[in-house]
Each structure stands twice: as C-alpha cells, then as structure tokens.
Write a structure and sequence with these properties.
It is a multi-pass membrane protein. By secondary structure, this protein is an alpha+beta fold. It has helices at 15-47, 58-87, 215-224; strands at residues 94-101, 104-109, 116-119, 141-144, 148-155, 160-164, 169-173, 179-184, 189-195, 207-213. 32% of the residues lie in helices and 26% in strands.
Length: 227
C-alpha cells in the first residue's frame, strides 16, 4: 500500500500494473522531452534577435505538423496494447462477484456452493494492533496467488467502483449492469483498495482488501467457511 508522502505508484503486484507503470514512465519521458524542447525554443526567442521571415516557412510548417503526430503515435500504440490486455480474460481459475452497497461490499464465489459474505470496514475501536485505519475489513477477499481471477462487478443501489491500485484494477459498479475485469496477483500478500466513485455520505468508509495466498491455503480457507 502507499506510504505517507509517496509520489509514485504503489508497488505493482500484477502483470497489468507492471505494464501500466512502464507506460506511465514512458509517457512521462515523452512529456519531459516536449517540455525541454519548448523551454529551449522559448529561451532562444527571448535571448536572440527578433526576426520576421515567414514567407518561406514550409520546412518549419512540416516539422510542427509531423512532430506532434509522431508523438501521438508513440503514446497511442503502447496505450492501445495495454487497453486490450486489460480487457482480455484468459481462462480464469476463479470467478468472483463483487456487489456494491451503501456502504459495504458483498462477495460471491460463483465456483463454490453458497460461498458468499459481506465485507464491512472495521471500526477504529475494534481495529487490531498493526492494522490500517479506514482500510481494514471484517472479511477479506481471499484469492489464490499466481492464478487468473475474473471479477464481475455490479451494484445494488447507486454507482460504486471496485478499485485495487496495486493490482491495476478499477471497474465501475453500476446497478442493473455486470462489468467484468480480471487480475493475476503474482505474489502472496494483502492489497488494499477503496470505492473510487462518490456514492454518498459514507463513500470513504467502504474499503476493499484482497488477500493473495498459496492455492493450498485458499482451499483450506474455502473449506472452513460456513455455508
């Protein structure tokens, strides 16, 4: 999860988030190059002699037409690649249904019989030592690590958004509609997220906690839950 005064992304815990981080760095370097060029040209204009020779300016017109188009292509191609990767769901090992309510989440493991539960934020007064205030829940989403997980997202009342930054997941929960996303946690760990759509007075108090565990641990967890 993010630290205090952190300006960068959270550590990537899925292949999609790794790709998003790389694209962010790539786009940032393109923006840095553009800003440096504009600053250099501005310095030349301010420090050089003023001249007016726009009669034969075909070369500069060609440059300032082609260069922005090339920059857009350099940004668009990797962006479209990642966009298609995010929409792709490849033979999921597990399907999870997340339902947004005011103001908690319900989860259904559709591959299991009667494996459903509600997930509420843990009040500060009941928070165990070492856990995070406003981010911990009473029932975590437990998924197997290094496995493709499909998440079907919807809402029961108003708009919500199921978002876990370190997994590169953010999907709107819309009443009457099923949205689909997927992720693959490439390591065991606990990943925190929150509802990312303003959904009412307690919008800030419906966190998301995804716990990625080895497959054997997940099987033991699912067998111990009451039906």
């Amino acid at each position: 999860m993010a630290n205090h005064s952190q300006f960068t992304f959270q550590d990537a815990s899925s292949p999609i988030m790794e790709e998003l981080t790389r694209f962010h760095d790539h786009a940032l370097m393109v923006a840095l190059a553009i800003c440096s060029l504009v600053l250099y040209l501005l310095t030349l204009v301010l420090t050089g002699k003023l001249t007016s020779n726009t009669v034969n300016a075909q070369a500069i017109e060609l440059i300032w037409t082609i260069l922005p188009a090339a920059v857009l292509i350099v940004l668009a191609l990797p962006s479209l690649r990642i966009l298609y990767m995010m929409d792709e769901v490849n033979e999921p090992v597990l399907t999870l249904k997340a339902i947004g309510h005011q103001w908690y989440w319900s989860y259904e493991y559709t591959d299991f019989k009667d494996l459903t539960f509600d997930s509420y934020m843990t009040p500060t007064t009941d928070l165990p030592l070492g856990h995070f205030r406003l981010l911990e829940v009473d029932h975590r989403v437990v998924v197997p690590a290094e496995s493709s997980i499909r998440v079907i997202v919807t809402a029961d009342d108003v708009l919500h958004s199921w978002a876990v930054p370190s997994l590169g997941v953010k999907t709107d929960a819309i009443p009457g509609r099923l949205n689909q996303t997927s992720f693959l946690a490439n390591r065991s760990g606990v990943f925190y997220g929150q509802c990312s759509e303003i959904c009412g007075a307690n919008h800030s108090f419906m966190p998301i906690v995804v716990e990625s565990v080895p497959l054997a641990t997940f099987e033991n967890w699912s067998s111990l839950l009451p039906s």
